[in-house]
Design a protein that fits this description.
Layout lengths: L2 H4 L3 E5 L13 H4 L5 H5 L12 H10 L4 E7 L16 H4 L7 H10 L3 E7 L6 H8 L3 H9 L4 H8 L12 H22 L8 E5 L11 H11 L4 E2 L11 E3 L12 E6 L16 H13 L2 E7 L9 H16 L8 E2 L10 E3 L5 E6 L6 E5 L7 E4 L5 E2 L1 E4 L10 E5 L10 E6 L21
Parallel strand pairs: 1-2, 1-8, 2-3, 3-4, 4-5, 6-7, 7-8
Antiparallel strand pairs: 9-10, 10-11, 11-17, 12-16, 13-14, 13-17, 15-16
Length: 449
């Protein structure tokens, strides 16, 4: 794990592909049978990247407060946004974009001091060899499936879960050859991405569908990745060989690992651009999700789907701008900090400084009119409302000093202290925070507490 990722806190996921032309669900629109594969691929004719300006992307991402970005170099539809020797299904040769889109992205992100991430799917639904093995089908049968609406997603579960995996029955020797040819292309494209574009900081893998008896050779893939990019971070979807876990579209109820982890979701309801999807989150909602995430030690990766021409939707741009204004105002409470207290001690998300002497509280709701802290033994040396710089006072109720039992600490705020998005309170202590153990035994009478 790289130190930069442990303290990154926020990333922007750029989910871009030909699916933005008609504004359909990325790859899954045909994978789930909503349209035919052939109909989906007609979008190649409308993908132009005519307004693609990665320098503007990078400035906006930096302005948002994010520390890294990820671009979909290839999604499950198999359409590559980069130049490759392993397939002709690329935006260079098959679309009006006519050029490599990954290289300029990498250069622009680095220029703004952002860490460069690349998304690359495992399963490629355009790769005949791969799908013929997964579905144990012939090329002719596969071509017929692609001409009509086919719910591949209903077929894969019958083949891929370990408890139901079965050996292929159609010409096993040819199946093995097909799988090896697919793996050669899969590894080759990874090698190209990690060789041709300079330093890559994060590799985000996805969707590795299985068939019994066929290995992804994941250990050697991870070895190749780290040999090509020794300082790279790899997400947990490289089946057992990742560096961190990802929770998709679900804010965990508790940290999903002892180390750093990632919560990925979207500005609206869609990963890629869908013009009919206007269900964009309010900035307050995004900041609330963000503070809840970092309070549990996670990084938040939030997705914006560029239009086919390369424009970031205005709604997403507005949220990113407002995010950046709020993060810039309260940066010290975010970078660098560690996960905060559990809700047993405080009912607000929080972070702690690395020396554990400063506690930051994120008040997403309006206090009424007190903040209550419970189970903190330390006296509070200084309390500051970072919204306006006003020093706050506190009082204590309960507790038993003679046996070091803390009471409840009450911090009073006024209307003037509140931020319209999220108020941040800084609590300084002279010593590292000392917490009453949650499972500390309690007894009554003469016996000590």
């Amino acid at each position: 794990m790289q130190k930069w990722y442990e303290q990154a806190k926020l990333g922007i996921f750029l989910h871009w592909g030909v699916y933005a032309v008609d504004g359909v669900a990325e790859s899954w629109s045909f994978g789930s049978g909503g349209m035919s594969y052939e109909e989906y691929m007609k979008q190649l004719d409308g993908f132009t990247a005519s307004n693609y300006n990665p320098e503007q992307w990078a400035k906006l991402i930096k302005q948002s407060g994010a520390r890294y970005a990820i671009l979909t170099a290839k999604h499950h539809d198999g359409v590559c946004l980069f130049d490759t020797a392993y397939t002709d299904l690329t935006v260079l040769g098959k679309t009006a974009a006519g050029r490599d889109l990954v290289g300029p992205y990498c250069e622009a992100m680095r220029k703004e001091g952002l860490k460069v991430g690349i998304y690359f799917t495992g399963t490629d639904w355009s790769d005949d060899d791969h799908i013929m093995v997964l579905l144990d089908t012939s090329k002719e049968e596969l071509q017929e499936m692609r001409r009509k609406k086919t719910a591949y997603s209903a077929m894969w579960p019958e083949q891929t879960p370990e408890e139901r995996q079965v050996e292929g029955v159609q010409i096993p020797a040819r199946r093995r050859q097909e799988w090896n040819l697919f793996l050669e292309r899969y590894k080759g494209e990874i090698r190209e991405l990690l060789t041709n574009y300079g330093k890559i900081d994060l590799f985000w893998t996805d969707a590795m569908l299985y068939r019994k008896g066929y290995s992804w050779d994941t250990e050697s893939v991870k070895k190749m990745i780290t040999e090509l990019q020794p300082d790279i971070v790899v997400n947990g979807r490289l089946d057992g060989y990742g560096d961190f876990l990802t929770s998709e579209q679900r804010l965990p109820l508790r940290p999903i690992s002892d180390g750093v982890w990632e919560y990925c979701h979207t500005f609206n309801e869609s990963w890629g651009f869908q013009g009919r999807d206007h269900k964009y989150k309010d900035t307050r909602q995004v900041i609330r999700l963000f503070t809840e995430c970092i309070a549990m030690g996670g990084n938040m990766l939030i997705g914006a789907g560029p239009k086919e021409n390369g424009d970031i939707p205005e709604e997403a741009e507005k949220i990113m701008t407002e995010m950046g204004q709020w993060i810039g105002k309260y940066e010290e409470a975010i970078f660098p900090t560690d996960r905060g207290l559990t809700f047993n001690y405080c009912r607000y998300p929080s972070t702690l400084s690395s020396d554990k002497k400063v506690l930051y509280l994120f008040l997403n709701d309006k206090p009424n009119p007190y903040i209550m802290l419970n189970g903190i033994r330390n006296p509070l040396y200084k309390i500051t409302c970072l919204t306006n710089g006003r020093e706050l006072s506190y009082s204590v109720t309960g507790g038993a000093d003679w046996v070091n039992i803390p009471g409840c600490k009450w911090i009073a705020l006024k209307e003037q202290d509140l931020d319209e998005i999220c108020t941040v309170v800084k609590i300084e202590m002279e010593e590292p925070i000392d917490l009453w153990e949650i499972d500390h035994p309690v007894s009554y009478g003469a016996q000590a507490y």
